[in-house]
Amino acid sequence: MDMSIQQLRMLREVAIRGTIVAAASSLGYTPSAISQQLSGLERATGVAVLERVGRNVRLTDAGRELVRHAGDLLSSLEAARAAMEQVAGDVRGTVELSVYESVAVTLLVPLLERLAAHHPDLRIRTRQLEVEPALEAVAAGTVDVAFTLDYAHAPMSQPAGVSSTSLLEDVFHLVVPSDDAPGVTRVSLAEFADRRFIASSPASSCGSSVVVACRTAGFEPDIAHQIDDFPTMMRLVAAGAGVALVPDLGLLGLPAGVRVLDIDRPFSRTIQIAFRTASAARPAVAAVHDALVAVVDRLASAPSEMAATG
């Protein structure tokens, strides 16, 4: 029976995504390439692993059994790779890193500078992904380390075989026009119950956290503008379009015409990094992990440096 690791990875991804098109998008292949590889897998094994259901496909019983073993095999191969790299002792190779906007603005440059200084043979490649696709990419093996988020009111579930480390608590503050609440630095959200809010979609984790915070304060927020970009939110606040709840990492580059107020019942999100459990021992992955912890520790002890980064 002659089957390749690539074919097994593709089959597992079809099982996770549900369609060949989605699996192809996740792995960076064309749907026809996935189909050809899986047809080759069926010829090699002599057993059908997929069956057509309308315009989609589903795994056969044999396909599901193969996926179950494929997961164990892929994890074992990654663990073997980590062990070999540990023996070699060198931090080199390529680490695929996914970021989202606020951590890219704040943490990416100092991370790359630190890694270049301490591990010049290590190459970092970055791509921008939202949290859920980033976790899926880590599980699929197309991303090695991903910045992710966790909210207390909506804990993020992690795919099997993925671990995470918490880096910092990102506390939310109320951003208001500069002539609001003069002489006040700490407010109750309830005082702003009749104001228009600028926030991410309530369907998103960030947007729903704003709704939860306002409901905890006793009112339903009037979200007049649904915007996912913190700098744009703050420019809208400066223009008098409403007020916004923005976390620490989103407060870089404050525009003129706004003030930042603490709230009396603060809430936060947790900035995390995720990686495959089997790859944690890889020197390259461990180097990225340790460098990130060091960067966050340095910025936490010198907040002005974080502001300067923006």
Automatic annotation (TrEMBL):
Gene3D superfamilies tied to this protein: Periplasmic binding protein-like II, Winged helix-like DNA-binding domain superfamily/Winged helix DNA-binding domain
Any one GO molecular-function label of the UniProt entry: DNA binding
Keyword match Nucleus: no
CC terms in the record's Gene Ontology section: protein-DNA complex
InterPro entries documented for this protein: LysR_HTH_N, LysR_subst-bd, WH-like_DNA-bd_sf, WH_DNA-bd_sf
Pfam family for this entry, one: LysR_substrate
Keywords associated with the record: DNA-binding, Transcription, Transcription regulation
Residue ranges of domain HTH lysR-type in the record: 3-60
Family: Belongs to the LysR transcriptional regulatory family.
Name of the protein described by the UniProt record: Transcriptional regulator, LysR family
